[in-house]
Amino acid sequence: MSALLQLTGIRKSFGDHEVLAGIDLDVSAHEVVALVGASGSGKSTLLRCINLLERIDDGRIVLDGEDISDPRVDADRVRARIGVVFQQYNLFPHLRVIDNVTLAARYVHGFSKADATAKGLELLERIGLGRKAHEYPDRLSGGQQQRVAIVRSLVTDPALLLLDEITSALDPELVGEVLDLVGSLRAQGTTILMATHEMAFAREIADRVVFLDAGEIIEAAAPEAFFDHPQHERTQRFLARLRR
């Protein structure tokens, strides 16, 4: 598989604190890569850098052959090719579901209202929320709101989907419906880079698991090898803490 995303020597600091200390990572087209690690390991910052919400201090980010870390790049045009879903749903409470789903597509990415609405309704129907299209977000459960946020990120047919701990704000009983949606996206061939603390899900859904610690990639392997036969002592300690 060809590399859709190439990260080379990515460094990012906030003041004197280096959060990313030289990240090298390739993500192939149609691959699902899970980023795991303790809080503060750099997972969320890495995703924000890829989506150009944070400018890197050094290194190179290449998306489908284009150097998107070049400061001259139009960030909005790049973000049109990248879907991103954060921990919080970030839905506008005063807008109906369909308007939340289509807002960025219409006003940032230039979709007509008709095209954006048709695509939004199609995606909502596909995940079983078509009947909720004209409801306000506060009429939906947390799991439904997060699924709407995922649909919003898919309206523009992004080349890459970034998921940042998308189940961390959900009650445990709602986690499954969101993870089921991610599983269906994987089956459709969506390229996904996700930060997650759901280890069982990472094992089941990811093609590769990447362990970050103190802003460095310590180990990257297929799920079975990563979880059953970790090679690095820091990886072994991380997994041992999770099993306690």
From TrEMBL:
> What organism is the protein native to?
Gryllotalpicola daejeonensis
The primary site where this protein sits is: membrane
**Classification via Pfam families:** ABC_tran
User: Membrane topology for this entry?
Assistant: Peripheral membrane protein
Q: Which Gene3D superfamilies match?
A: P-loop containing nucleotide triphosphate hydrolases
Q: Where in the cell is it found?
A: Cell membrane
Which family is this protein grouped under?
Answer: Belongs to the ABC transporter superfamily.
Which GO MF terms are attached to this record? Answer: ATP binding
Q: What is this protein called?
A: Amino acid ABC transporter ATP-binding protein
Give residue ranges for domain ABC transporter.
5-239
Keywords from the UniProt entry: Amino-acid transport, ATP-binding, Cell membrane, Membrane, Nucleotide-binding, Transport
Domain of life according to the entry: Bacteria
